Fold this sequence. Notes:
2 copies of one chain form a homodimer.
Chain A: H1 3-29, H2 32-39, H3 43-49, H4 53-77, H5 82-99, H6 101-111, H7 120-137, H8 147-167, H9 174-188, H10 191-194, H11 210-219
Helix pairs in contact in A: 1-2, 1-4, 1-6, 4-5, 4-6, 5-7, 5-8, 5-9, 7-8
Amino acid sequence: MTKQERAIRTRSRLVNSAADVFRRQGYERASLASISSQVGVSSGALHFHFENKAALASAVVLEASRALCRSASHIQRTQSPALQALIDTTHAVAELLRENVVVQAGYQLSVAGHGTGQPLRTKWQSHVARLIVEADREGMLRAGVPREDITASIVASTVGFELLGRDSRAWLSRGSLTGYWQVQLATLASYDALDRLLPAGTDSARIPPQGTLALAAAKS
Amino acid sequence: MTKQERAIRTRSRLVNSAADVFRRQGYERASLASISSQVGVSSGALHFHFENKAALASAVVLEASRALCRSASHIQRTQSPALQALIDTTHAVAELLRENVVVQAGYQLSVAGHGTGQPLRTKWQSHVARLIVEADREGMLRAGVPREDITASIVASTVGFELLGRDSRAWLSRGSLTGYWQVQLATLASYDALDRLLPAGTDSARIPPQGTLALAAAKS
């Protein structure tokens, strides 16, 4: 392994360790010493990569944002109707929030105001709004239900699922989200669309391992 | 004013000041000095009432819990159907979260693990679950929609509204919640019930001033 490869690897392990410590102890209480010692490097090595705690938090948020964008763009690429893409995205995000410590910590940090750029929750709101506009254009939404109320309702519930899932992972299970979508689609989806939508998500809602995605991106 | 009355008044002003400081700065960063100086009392006077920051946080959570229980029991006393009581309660809680700094701070502190006894969010979940069971018994719920999915969906969205409302009060407006209930009732409520329910809440959703309530409680 070259020196540069080793540096990249150490940096990535520091980001993972920081995510773990931030998630368990919160930003304020997290100490840089425990983040570096978990990785088995000196605090000097940590400071070579990150100026301070804020820089580490930003790196975690950025990593989380990338993972979320990767899964969202993978789903949009499958070209299912927008409403199905939205359902699939909520399943994919829930899976990331269940299993990926960087996404868990990054989301919590972003909500608490850490990280640079647009907060993850704001990005999520725009994403939902955009897909609802598309679903409307595709004729998949029930007539007479105000579109902004649909968007607000989905944003509020998904934000709630994320928050409740921090204490109890069951909220983020496939079953829990499938039940949610069954209830919601009964009001939101046009009668024609109802038969075509899968509340449990399509196969595209399963997140492929990162390597596969990178390969797919390289080919496209 | 007797010495005892003055002490009660000072204590109550300290709880309000603590709520304000906790809400703006968060628990970790809040300093006891700024809490006492906002009230114009010495830190000795603060310590006469509260042993430490944790005790102050518990007092804020307890005050918030009392305010929420007062409004919930006021609504149940009006004897409307359980589903209407639930709608009314969400409007009343949203009003408290919009306008009452102790409820805002108490809710946030409780979610972050401060305060003694059952967390406010757990109480809220039980309250929703109980009213949905009652609504089912009253025949107000649509056949074929699983009751636990209805409960989970309402809990998740209301938790989301609270969280989103911290940054942007519009989420907690009467209009926003009315839109939410219009969308939800279209799936949840039985066809018979739909005409009888008011998504904007009945008059009982308006919180009477505390004095009025105390009077009503004394009379009953």
